[in-house]
Structure formats: structure tokens, C-alpha cells
Design brief:
The complex is a heterodimer of chains A (251) and B (280). Chain A is mainly α and 251 residues long. Chain A has two domains: 30 residues; 214 residues, MetI-like fold, CATH 1.10.3720. Helices cover 83% and strands 0% of the residues of chain A. Chain A starts with a helix and ends in an 8-residue tail after the last helix. Chain B has seven helices and ten strands. Bound molecules: adenosine-5'-triphosphate and magnesium ion. The site of magnesium ion (MG) has 4 residues of chain B, from α1.
């Protein structure tokens, strides 16, 4: 398990480096708005079990639900569209028209239609993740070398076999890359949507603390949000390691 | 019964910018259980011919039949080894070798048994859990062979299965192919660029013309398969004969024949600009 040890050492080193930079930054700025790591961590530890926890749970649930939903909807559709010229003729123009529209501008509409609770946030993040993954899955499916498909078809494989044995595994690494990039966007949009509507979620907690000039609490919220992003990223990293073992060959 | 008959077969690829006539009026008959070698200049349509025989590609004109039946799609007892081996990088050696059986719905237990036997046959038993990316070129070629073997096919189509190997490994695998054919008696079509390989593994050696491919010569090689054939004078004679034929063909060159200005539309068949079947 030297791989694990090396990873742990790497993370510890990076954490220390970040804390040092943070400390130096807060000393240099010398403002109440940027507390150093010591008061922020103290606030984080102090409020975690009481104040912070429900907000963290709510935010985690929203972003997890949205990313799962977006993936489950987008990946099969994207792969199908990428492999079928007929489906592509129908969907490609639609995708090209809708993809560049910044979905985040629909936040006010969603807030009006779906209210200030979970639904509006989940739908917005799902929408964004959906289109990112749709485009990636379509491109990945189109880029599959014809030789792989031919070889499996020569063995007597039908359409479903080709999807199972070739299309899905071949597209998987690209889909994971898109998901990992997507976590950044998803958490950012989560923050925005929570800071605008509702009274639950880390976004609300951070903006509320800001309004009360409770900068240590604000930073505790920021830390929690950062941890959420890191946790999502690591989760994906773990899943990719499990599902895409062959990509480690030769490294 | 797995003889292969191609009658007046033509293929024109639609291509992206330009059409390419790959085969034109090709006739070929391979008897049941006969091993033939197919040799010809690069781009003359050898791989195309194997795709036709395996049912992955439909000819624009002409007929293809295997075992007396017209070929309409992949046939369950035909095995094809593609020029790039067609291994899936995301599957282990074991799963690559088992893929054909899995697709055919063979049960897990029987699959394990048959695959273990075919991997052992090509000397890859201890690499069952490796990925293709962890194998050498020769091992990949052996894996492709193991996958074909596991199918227990009566028609084995091989597209340069031993290219890019050093001379010794290559002769090793040639011996393996010969032995397998002797044991199993399948019909075998081997595409190769090597004259010695063609003479060693083909009871008949079929020579194709430059693109668009047609059969220009057939070299009979009745003593193929005899033990120690590679060291006999007859073997060298056959090789020399084949080399002369190929050289003569090279001298002819692709431009010496009747001029073919625009691809496709000049052909004998009015509707030749047909595309290969849609993928997946
Ligand atoms: N999918 C394709 N689309 C368009 N043209 C193709 C396609 N596949 C092959 N061709 C063309 O058809 C001709 C015959 O190709 P083929 O692969 O059958 O040749 P080959 O005899 O196997 O050559 P090599 O010895 O180099 O493998 C070539 O000129 C090639 O450019
Ligand atoms: Mg070829």
C-alpha cells in the first residue's frame, strides 16, 4: 500500500502549504474579513456539530442528487446520440443551440416556479451537469475507433453488446473527466443558488454570516464548502480508479 | 462445411472526400478445410476481402458465400483476427479471450474452461489478469489468436496476424498456426505481406493485383504442411516463384493498367458508390 502512503503524505504536505499561504495572506491583508487559519478552524470546530451540520447535509444532498440525476440522464442519451447518425441528426442541432446558453440565468425563473427549497437548486445544477455530460458523452462515443467496434461485431455482437463491451467502457474515462470538472461548476452554482434563496445550505450560511459581520463563522462555512468540493472530487477519483483500472497500465 | 466462395465481388468505399474502389470483379474459391494465403500490394483490398467474408461488410456487387450459404452478417462459426488485433484495452486478457463466447451467450463455467484452454494453447495462461496494454506485440497477437481459437470456428480469417514480430517469434507462431490447422482442419484464409509465411501456411497462395484488387495468380503449394518443409529446396523454389510474380506485378504498377480517372463511376456496375454498413 505504498500508493496510499504516498498519497497521504502528498495531501498532508499540500494541506500544510495551503495553511501557511493562508496565514501569510491573512497577515499581509490584515483585515477582519480574512481571518487566519487558527480562528477560522476554531470557529469551524466549534460550530460544526451545532450550526454548520444541517447546512452541510442539505448542501451535500442537493449537489449529490443533482450530479447523479444529471449523469443518469445525460450519459445514456449522449452515448446513443454519438453512435446513431439518425439520433444525432435530431439532437445535435438542439444540443448546439442550448449548450452555450448559461443555464445559471434561469435561477430566478426556477426560484419562482419551484420555490426556495431543494427543488430549484437541484434542477439548476442538474441542468448544468446534464449539458456538460451530454456533450462529452456524445463526443466520446463518436471518437471510438471503428476497429474496436468491428472486432466485437465480428464475434457476433449485436447493438446492445457493442454498447456494453465497447461504447460504455471506451467513453468512461472522458465521462469521469467531465464529472470532475463538473464538480467545480456544480459547487459554484450551489453556492450562488443557496445564497440567493432559502434559509438552508452552506451558501446561505456563508452569506448570512457575512451580513452579521461574523467573519470567523463565514470562514467556517467557506471551509465546509471547500471540503464538500474536495470530497466530491475524491469520490469520483475513487470510482474512476475502480471502474477504469486499465487506464493505469503503463504508468 | 465452411468453404468460401467470392463471385465477381466489387467494393467501393464512399469515403469522406473521395470514393475508393477497393475490389473489382474478384473471384475466389477456397475449399472446405483448405488453408490459403492471400498476398498483394498494400491497399489492394485484402482487409476488405476479409471483412466481406466475415459478414461485416456487404459487397457493392457480386456474391459471397460461406459453406454454401450467402453471407448476410457475422456468422457464428467464423473467427476473424483484424489487422490491429481488435483487442479491447479495458478488458483483461481473460475477458478479451472470452468476449466471443460471452457475446454468444456461453455460460460462465464453460467459458472459463474453453478460454483457459485456448490461453494455455498460445502460452498466455499466466497473463490472464493482465491488460492488453501490458503485453508485448507478440503476446497481443497470441491473445487475438486465443480469442479466435476459443470460438472453435470452422473458418479462420486472419489479417496479417504475425506482422511486426521478430523472425524467431514469428516462426514460432507460424508453427503454432500450422499445428492448429493440422489438428482442427478448419478453412483458413491468411493475409500476409511475407512471401515465406505465405508459402509456409498456404496450400495455395493467391496473388492479388494492385488496387482495385483482383486475383492475378495462384501458386499451388501441395507440400505445405509437411514436417520440415521450411528447409526443403521446394520451399525456396515456391518462394522464388512467388517473388517473381509479385515483382512482375510491381513492374506493371498501378498506373499501367487501363486508365481509371474518376474513381467509382467508371466501373462495370452502375451503382458502385456504396458505403460500408453503418457501424455499431
Ligand atoms: N473505411 C474505409 N473508407 C474509405 N476507404 C477505405 C476504407 N477502408 C479501406 N479503404 C480503402 O480501400 C482500399 C483497400 O483497403 P484495404 O484495407 O482492404 O487494403 P489492404 O490490402 O488490406 O492493405 P494493407 O496491406 O496495407 O493492409 C485502400 O485504398 C483504402 O484506402
Ligand atoms: Mg489490410
Amino acid at each position: 500500500m505504498t500508493g496510499w502512503r504516498r498519497k497521504a503524505v502528498g495531501y498532508a504536505g499540500a494541506t500544510v502549504a495551503l495553511l501557511v499561504i493562508w496565514q501569510l495572506g491573512s497577515l499581509a491583508v490584515d483585515s477582519r474579513a480574512l481571518p487566519g487559519p487558527v480562528p477560522a478552524l476554531a470557529a469551524f470546530a466549534g460550530s460544526f456539530a451545532t450550526e454548520l451540520w444541517p447546512h452541510l447535509v442539505s448542501s451535500s444532498w442537493r449537489v449529490l442528487a443533482a450530479m447523479t440525476l444529471g449523469t443518469v440522464l445525460a450519459v445514456p442519451l449522449g452515448l446513443l446520440v454519438g453512435r446513431s447518425p439518425r439520433a444525432d441528426a435530431v439532437f445535435a442541432p438542439l444540443i448546439f443551440l442550448v449548450y452555450p446558453i448559461p443555464k445559471v440565468v434561469f435561477l430566478p425563473v426556477l426560484l419562482v416556479l419551484l420555490g426556495l427549497g431543494d427543488a430549484s437548486k437541484i434542477v439548476l445544477i442538474t441542468l448544468i451537469v446534464f449539458f456538460q455530460l451530454l456533450v462529452t458523452a456524445r463526443d466520446a462515443a463518436r471518437a471510438i475507433p471503428p476497429g474496436s467496434v468491428l472486432s466485437v461485431r465480428s464475434l457476433g455482437a449485436g447493438r446492445a453488446d457493442v454498447f456494453r463491451h465497447v461504447v460504455v467502457p471506451a467513453a468512461l474515462p472522458d465521462i469521469f473527466t467531465a464529472l470532475r470538472i463538473g464538480t467545480g461548476t456544480a459547487v459554484a452554482v450551489l453556492f450562488l443558488s443557496e445564497s440567493i434563496g432559502g434559509r438552508l445550505g452552506l451558501g446561505y450560511y456563508i452569506v448570512d454570516a457575512w451580513g452579521r459581520l461574523a467573519y470567523d463563522a463565514m470562514f467556517a462555512g467557506i471551509l465546509a464548502m471547500a471540503l464538500l468540493g474536495v470530497a466530491l472530487y475524491e469520490l469520483l477519483e475513487l470510482a474512476e480508479g475502480r471502474l477504469c483500472r486499465w487506464t493505469r497500465v503503463g504508468r | 462445411m465452411a468453404g468460401l466462395v467470392a463471385r465477381d465481388v466489387s467494393v467501393t468505399y464512399a469515403g469522406v472526400g473521395r470514393a475508393t474502389e477497393a475490389l473489382s470483379g474478384l473471384d475466389l474459391a477456397v475449399a472446405d478445410g483448405e488453408p490459403v494465403a492471400l498476398i498483394g500490394p498494400s491497399g489492394c483490398g485484402k482487409s476488405t476481402l476479409l471483412l466481406l467474408a466475415s459478414g461485416l461488410l456487404a459487397p457493392c456487387a457480386g456474391d459471397i458465400a460461406v459453406g454454401g450459404e450467402p453471407v448476410r452478417g457475422p456468422r457464428l462459426s467464423t473467427a476473424l483476427i483484424l489487422q490491429d488485433f481488435g483487442l479491447l484495452p479495458w478488458k483483461t486478457v481473460l475477458h478479451n479471450a472470452a468476449l466471443g463466447l460471452e457475446v454468444r451467450g456461453v455460460g460462465r463455467v464453460e467459458r472459463r474452461e474453453r478460454v483457459a484452454a485456448s490461453l494455455a494453447r498460445v502460452g498466455l495462461a499466466e497473463f490472464a489478469d493482465a491488460y492488453p496494454g501490458e503485453l508485448s506485440g507478440g503476446m497481443r497477437q497470441r491473445l487475438a489468436l486465443a480469442r479466435a481459437l476459443a470460438l472453435d470456428a470452422d473458418l479462420l480469417l486472419m489479417d496479417e496476424p504475425l506482422s511486426s514480430l521478430d523472425a524467431l517469434t514469428r516462426e514460432d507462431l507460424q508453427d503454432l498456426l500450422l499445428e492448429l490447422w493440422r489438428q482442427r482442419g478448419h478453412t483458413s484464409v491468411l493475409v500476409t505481406h511475407s512471401i515465406e509465411e505465405a508459402v509456409f501456411l498456404g496450400r495455395r497462395v493467391i496473388v492479388l493485383s494492385p488496387r482495385p484488387g483482383r486475383v492475378t495468380a495462384v501458386v499451388d503449394n501441395p507440400r505445405m504442411g509437411e514436417t520440415g518443409y521450411r528447409e526443403t529446396a521446394e520451399f525456396y523454389e515456391r518462394c522464388a516463384e512467388l517473388r517473381r510474380l509479385l515483382a512482375a506485378e510491381g513492374a506493371l504498377g498501378p498506373d499501367a493498367g487501363p486508365a481509371r480517372p474518376g474513381p467509382a463511376e467508371e466501373g462495370a456496375h452502375p451503382a458502385t458508390a456504396c458505403a460500408p454498413e453503418a457501424s455499431s
